[in-house]
Structures are given as C-alpha cells and as structure tokens.
C-alpha cells in the first residue's frame, strides 16, 4: 500500500500544519465545509483535526448518499421489498437507514428478501439467476454512483432482461450546495469540494460558488494529506483575497469531468422537478428519475408505492447537521437516544454520516487526552 | 487528579458535558430493542454483547458465566477445569488455508488455551443439510482429526442431526472442549492496570479477508490464506515466561472488539499505535478497497495479551521464537484515562476512538 502511505505521511502533515497556522490571520476565524461524507470519514478516521489550529473549524456537508434519503422513500422501498415476488438489492450502507417503519435490516429479519450487493451489476446477476423473481436495485448516491446504475439499466435492456428494475433515488450535488449557500444561517468561508463526484461532473459546475457567492472551493482527494493541502489552498486564496475553484485532486479529477459517464446518466435518467432531501426539505431539480423510455426498468412505474411524505422525528436535527449549522454533538439526542445501534437520524447510520463519524471516532475530549501524556 | 483534570471537572465545556452524558448512557445496562434477531446480533460487536447480556446471562446467571471469558473456570472434584463451546457457520466451508473442520477444532482449543488451560477433550456436533455430499463431510472430518492430532486433543463424543434441504447452509459444526488448568494464574481483566503493555501475537485480519474473498462476491484476487491455527503452545510459552494479565483470542469482531471489552471491563483506557499494529500489506490493501478497518476483521490464530509493562520486550521475544508468533508486536499501552475507551494514534499523527462494532462491517459504497 505504498500508494496510500504516501498520502499519510506524518512528517509532511506536520509541515503542512505549520504552513496552515502561518496563513491564519490573527484573530480571524475560518469555517470550511467538507461537502462529501467521504471527507468527513477521513477527517475523523485519521484524527486530522489534531493538526488544525483553533481558528479553523470544519463543518460537515450534505454529501453523504445515505444521509439525505428521506423517511418516505425508505418506506416506499420497503413496500416494494415486502412483495413476495421481489428481491430487493441494496448497498450495505442503506441496510440500517430507518424509515417510518424500521429499516431494511428489520424488514429482512421479518422475512423480506433483501440482499446486500457491492454493485448494481451484482443485482443484475441475481436477476439472471432468478428469472421467476423481480429483482429491484435500490439506486442511491450522487453523480458518483449514478453512472453505474445507468450502465446496468442499459446492460439489462441489451440482454432483454424483464425482471430487473431500479428504485431510483440518485441525487445531484450542485442544488444541495446551492441550498446551503442560500440558507440564511450559513457562515462559511469556503468549501472542500467532493472528490469522487467531481471525477464525473468535473470542476466547472462549481464556478458559480466562486463567481456568484464569492466563496473559494478546492476539489480534494480522500487521503488525509489531500485534505490538509486543500485547507492550505483555501486559506491561501483567502489570504490573497481570491475566490476561485481549484483542483487539488488532479491525479483523479479532470477539470471537465467524465463526458461518457454524464452521457450515460442522461441517456437513462432525467431531472425530477423536485425531490425531498432528509433534513433539507424539497429542493427543485435536485434528483434523477428514470426516463420514460426506460419505464420498464423503473420500479416506481412497475410497483405501487405509497409515496407518502413522512415527517422526520421531532427530535431529529439532521437538517441542521447536514447544512453544517450544528456540530453533531449539538443535536439534543446525539449519543443518548440516537446512537449507531439505534439511529434516529440518517447521519448516524452511514460511516460517512457526520454524527456516526464523530460518535465512532471523535467522541473523547482532547484535553483529557493530553493528560494521558502520549508520546 | 491533576490540576488540569480538576479544572475540566469543574468547568467542562458544552461539548465535554455532552460527552460525559454519553458515557453515562453507555454505562447503562443494555436493553434489547429489536423484536427479532438480526444479523447484527451475530457479528460480535455491540449488538452481540447486548443479546448475550440481556438474554443469555439474564437467564443463566452464575459466577462462572458472568465473567464472560472465552471459557468458564469450574471446579471438578478439587481439580480446576476450563470448559468452553463454540459453533461454526462459515461460508464457504472450504477456503484457502483451511475449512470449517480445522476452524472448529482450533477455535475451541484456542478458547481453552487463552484461559490458561491445557486442552484435553473435545466434542463435535454436526447439523447437516439434506443432500450434503458425504465426500465433503469426510474432508471436513479428516481435517478435524488432523487438527486435533496437532493440538494434542481427542474428539471423544459427538452428535449428528440432519435438517431439511433449505434449512441449513450445508454443514454447521459445534465443538465443546475441556482443559485442565495446572498453573497458578492472575489472568483476568481485573488485573489489567495502567502501564501494562498490549501485545498481538501476529499479523491481523487474515482469516476474515480470506473468507470475504473466498465468497467470490468481491472482484478481488489475493494470495492470502486463513490464519487458522491452534495457539496453545504459543500461549503456554508466554505464560511460562512473563506475568500475563489478560489473554483473549481475537476472533469475530477482531482485535478492536477484544480491546474494547478489556477497556470497559477494566475501567481503563487503551492507547494503540496504528503504525505498530502488524497487518500484511495485502490485508491492508483489501481493507482499503472495501472501506473496512483491519482492527475489526476476524483472526483465527491470533490472540491479544496484556502483560506487565516492564516485561513487554521479553514477551515479544518469547512469542517471536515460535513460528505462530513470528509477527508478534507491542501495539499499545493501558492508560488510566479516558476510562473505558480505546484510542488509536493514527499513522497520520492524529488520534481517534476505536469503538465497539455496531453491526456486521458493511463495505461502504463510494
Ligand atoms: S444525532 Fe441523530 S438525530 Fe441528531 S442530527 Fe445526528 S443523526 Fe440526526
């Protein structure tokens, strides 16, 4: 794992940390949002905050695919999964997400045929070997995972498979960022841009963030040094009085994105007029659905779903956490009623959710730690 | 208490208050909220712990059981015996480096060994699915016999049940074992104290990753074999050489789960150095790909030992002399504070918690 170790070098991290400290104007506070849940995970998993000066605060954004799925959609998926002819297939992260009536794991324990897959192609395999069953794939994720879902539908169509469909919950990142920028309680100085999504959409779509809102954004990789370096690039921009879109993750992210992947998405899917995001409410043109031409592969067209909007539990403050307004521990039920074993909100479920990351990795006071005199 | 700790206790920040509240909530007796058993209850993490304590311990309550060690220490006619049992449901049944047969023998031998006992006799129970090939059954029993011979134990009693096609996964094996405790021991989490060293006996995570790859669900190929082995000799060598405070084999739930159980039961902190944890590059690579943490991946021939800090180097030396302990290393220390938590100093230079596992480790999606 040389490739990885290169980006986890503690010596380089120390040097970057001191450069970061130098760039901070005395007395000024900086708040940056890492949009992507993958970044949140890296930050906590490697203890990256230990390198940041007090003046720099990271807040966690909406880029966690599982976190933004609203309760109503989970219930709809369960209604499909409970049909005797259906095999529901889903990524592992999704299994514990609570809907109004429990999670996939609960439904599975109660007899529904729900199987965990690593890719939509696995779901297709299941469809081939179970011709008498209806296989439904729970499509979730941003532009990162949408192309593989779309590819799978094309493959199913080419093979003439008639027992495969997708329950499409794919969302798009830009409207979510825009919603956050437009929300009145937002006090951000810049963004750490989502690396994986950007491999598909490129860096151009973020230009309005710098242009219209005057905030810098740096597309960042997922190793801890990538993130430190991106923070350094953001601070550099602020020190120079610039607000631009920059690409730290050039080893993976092409400026113009991946044309082929975007074409595949738009061949199979189109924007929904609006879609509900957990905690953020309805955001217009923020999610994808299957095109009319692929209705045969659209689970929403093939099965009756309740389609009922289910209000989030009263105690849940996921919306505030997803917008970066509250730190996970500031939610009233964090760690007591809402834990990874018994999640109330979605941010406690996925390893990329801010609440789960903080609970699993960051739940100790650093002051007490210093006392333990670590060498 | 130091001046600073007193200051923290007197004026905790808002975040610290929340953290204190959480620790209190965690210390409460676990309650089962689910109405049905889910797969998480079998994953070895927090859900398993809850199920065991809220259902089984609650029903069977007795001192030998309540220590929740790998085996129970019982007095038989004045002699001290260790008694243990374990069921094996691995899929696939045959995998690189072993099969369900040697796994079942080694696992039970190891449970006895880490209690300090000399393994003597095993029982073997089989639940077979209608249609299961006799040839496969022979293969399994042959490797059980070979494993038993290697471990110097005899399989002296057994049982067979056949269930209808569809109600079992081919073959399940349950082994129970007894061993005799013929040494004086201070083993037990309560003897764990600040200053102790934490040792693992070899590279971790190899069994778990081998199984995941052997299932063929991941498009990965790797030259990796299960670490399944009987570790009783290695354990005996260690017990002969140094004062050992705690021993546990790191099976389901991995090293992280063992460390958490110890930290919680002993009321101490355990601080682990990530860079000191022995992990083969190939295991690390597979874990990176799957978004798993090798600390949580199962081993079948590795144990965690907590020894008096001043004997740490001797302990590692003794272990490394044995082929099964070649990769042994000191991975961390027991500290007083923060009690009940396992902290990891990451290779990157930061610090984080290593918590109990919540469910099965689910590979992340992107
Ligand atoms: S603690 Fe639970 S309810 Fe509160 S924001 Fe986090 S996930 Fe949502």
From TrEMBL, chain A:
<dbReference type="GO" id="GO:0070025">
    <property type="term" value="F:carbon monoxide binding"/>
</dbReference>
<dbReference type="InterPro" id="IPR042243">
    <property type="entry name" value="HypD_1"/>
</dbReference>
<dbReference type="InterPro" id="IPR002780">
    <property type="entry name" value="Hyd_form_HypD"/>
</dbReference>
<dbReference type="Pfam" id="PF01924">
    <property type="entry name" value="HypD"/>
</dbReference>
<dbReference type="GO" id="GO:0051539">
    <property type="term" value="F:4 iron, 4 sulfur cluster binding"/>
</dbReference>
<protein>
    <submittedName>
        <fullName>Hydrogenase formation protein HypD</fullName>
    </submittedName>
</protein>
<keyword id="KW-0408">Iron</keyword>
<dbReference type="InterPro" id="IPR042244">
    <property type="entry name" value="HypD_2_sf"/>
</dbReference>
<dbReference type="GO" id="GO:0005506">
    <property type="term" value="F:iron ion binding"/>
</dbReference>
<keyword id="KW-0479">Metal-binding</keyword>
<dbReference type="GO" id="GO:0051604">
    <property type="term" value="P:protein maturation"/>
</dbReference>
<comment type="similarity">
    <text>Belongs to the HypD family.</text>
</comment>
Automatic annotation (TrEMBL), chain B:
<dbReference type="Pfam" id="PF02769">
    <property type="entry name" value="AIRS_C"/>
</dbReference>
<dbReference type="InterPro" id="IPR016188">
    <property type="entry name" value="PurM-like_N"/>
</dbReference>
<dbReference type="GO" id="GO:0051604">
    <property type="term" value="P:protein maturation"/>
</dbReference>
<protein>
    <submittedName>
        <fullName>Hydrogenase expression/formation protein HypE</fullName>
    </submittedName>
</protein>
<feature type="domain" description="PurM-like N-terminal">
    <location>
        <begin position="69"/>
        <end position="180"/>
    </location>
</feature>
<dbReference type="Pfam" id="PF00586">
    <property type="entry name" value="AIRS"/>
</dbReference>
<dbReference type="InterPro" id="IPR010918">
    <property type="entry name" value="PurM-like_C_dom"/>
</dbReference>
<comment type="similarity">
    <text>Belongs to the HypE family.</text>
</comment>
<dbReference type="InterPro" id="IPR036676">
    <property type="entry name" value="PurM-like_C_sf"/>
</dbReference>
<dbReference type="InterPro" id="IPR036921">
    <property type="entry name" value="PurM-like_N_sf"/>
</dbReference>
<feature type="domain" description="PurM-like C-terminal">
    <location>
        <begin position="193"/>
        <end position="339"/>
    </location>
</feature>
<dbReference type="InterPro" id="IPR011854">
    <property type="entry name" value="HypE"/>
</dbReference>
């Amino acid at each position: 794992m040389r490739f990885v170790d290169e980006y986890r070098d503690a010596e380089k991290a120390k040097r970057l940390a001191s450069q970061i400290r130098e760039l901070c104007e005395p007395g000024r506070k900086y708040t940056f949002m890492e949009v992507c849940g993958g970044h949140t995970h890296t930050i906590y998993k490697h203890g990256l905050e230990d390198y940041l000066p007090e003046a720099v605060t990271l807040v966690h954004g909406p880029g966690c695919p599982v976190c933004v799925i609203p309760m109503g959609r989970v219930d709809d998926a369960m209604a499909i999964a409970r049909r005797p002819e259906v095999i529901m297939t889903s990524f592992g992260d999704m299994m514990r997400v609570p809907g109004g009536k429990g999670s996939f794991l609960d439904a599975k324990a109660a007899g529904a045929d729900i199987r965990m897959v690593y890719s939509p192609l696995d779901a297709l395999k299941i469809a081939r070997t179970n011709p008498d069953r209806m296989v439904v794939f729970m499509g979730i994720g941003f532009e990162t995972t949408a192309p593989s879902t779309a590819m799978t539908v094309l493959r199913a169509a080419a093979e003439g498979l008639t027992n495969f469909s997708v329950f499409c919950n794919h969302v798009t990142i830009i409207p979510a960022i825009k919603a956050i920028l437009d929300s009145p309680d937002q006090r951000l100085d810049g963004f750490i841009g989502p690396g994986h999504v950007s491999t598909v959409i490129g860096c151009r779509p973020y230009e309005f963030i710098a242009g219209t809102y005057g905030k810098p954004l740096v597309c960042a990789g997922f190793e801890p040094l990538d993130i430190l370096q991106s923070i350094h690039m953001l601070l550099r921009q602020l020190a120079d009085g610039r607000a631009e879109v920059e690409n730290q993750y050039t080893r993976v992210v092409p400026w113009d994105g991946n044309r082929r992947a975007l074409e595949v998405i738009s061949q199979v899917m189109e924007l929904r007029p609006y879609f509900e995001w957990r905690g953020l409410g309805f955001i217009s043109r923020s999610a994808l659905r299957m095109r009319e031409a692929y209705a045969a592969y659209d689970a929403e067209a093939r099965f009756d779903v309740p389609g009922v909007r289910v209000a989030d539990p009263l105690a849940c403050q996921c919306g505030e956490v997803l917008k970066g307004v509250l730190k996970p521990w500031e939610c009233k039920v964090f760690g007591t009623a809402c834990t990874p074993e018994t999640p109330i909100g979605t941010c406690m479920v996925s390893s990329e959710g801010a609440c789960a990351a903080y609970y699993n990795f960051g739940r100790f006071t650093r002051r007490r730690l210093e006392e333990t005199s670590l060498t | 208490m130091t001046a600073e700790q007193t200051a923290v206790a007197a004026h905790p920040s808002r975040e610290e208050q929340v953290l204190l509240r959480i620790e209190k909530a965690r210390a409460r007796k676990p309650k089962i909220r689910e109405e049905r058993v889910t797969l998480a209850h079998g994953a070895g993490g927090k859900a398993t712990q809850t199920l065991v304590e809220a259902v089984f311990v609650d029903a069977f309550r007795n001192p030998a059981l309540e220590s929740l060690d790998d085996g129970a220490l019982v007095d038989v006619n004045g002699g001290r015996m260790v008694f243990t049992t374990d069921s094996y449901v691995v899929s696939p049944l045959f995998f690189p480096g072993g099969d369900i047969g040697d796994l079942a023998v080694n696992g039970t031998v190891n449970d006895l060994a880490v209690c300090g006992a000399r393994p003597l006799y095993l029982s073997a129970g089989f639940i077979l699915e209608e249609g299961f090939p006799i040839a496969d059954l022979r293969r399994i029993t042959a490797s059980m016999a070979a494993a038993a011979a290697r471990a110097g134990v005899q399989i002296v009693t057994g049982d067979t049940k056949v269930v209808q096609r569809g109600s079992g996964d081919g073959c399940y094996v349950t082994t129970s074992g007894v061993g005799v405790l013929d040494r004086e021991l201070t083993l037990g989490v309560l003897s764990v104290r600040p200053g102790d060293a934490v040792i693992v006996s070899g590279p971790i995570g190899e069994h778990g990753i081998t199984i995941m790859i052997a299932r063929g669900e991941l498009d990965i190929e790797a030259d990796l074999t299960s670490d399944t082995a009987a570790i009783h000799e290695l354990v005996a060598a260690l017990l002969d050489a140094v004062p050992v405070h705690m021993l546990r084999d790191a099976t389901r739930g991995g090293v992280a789960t063992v460390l958490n159980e110890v930290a919680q039961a002993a009321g101490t902190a355990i601080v682990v150095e990530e860079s000191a944890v022995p992990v083969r590059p190939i295991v690390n690579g597979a874990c990176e790909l799957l978004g798993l943490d090798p600390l949580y991946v199962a081993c079948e021939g590795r144990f965690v030992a907590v020894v008096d800090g001043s004997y740490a180097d001797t302990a590692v030396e003794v272990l490394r002399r044995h082929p099964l302990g070649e990769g042994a290393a000191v991975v961390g220390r027991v500290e007083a504070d923060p009690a009940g938590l396992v902290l990891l100093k990451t290779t990157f230079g930061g610090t984080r918690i290593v918590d109990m596992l919540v469910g099965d480790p689910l590979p992340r999606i992107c």
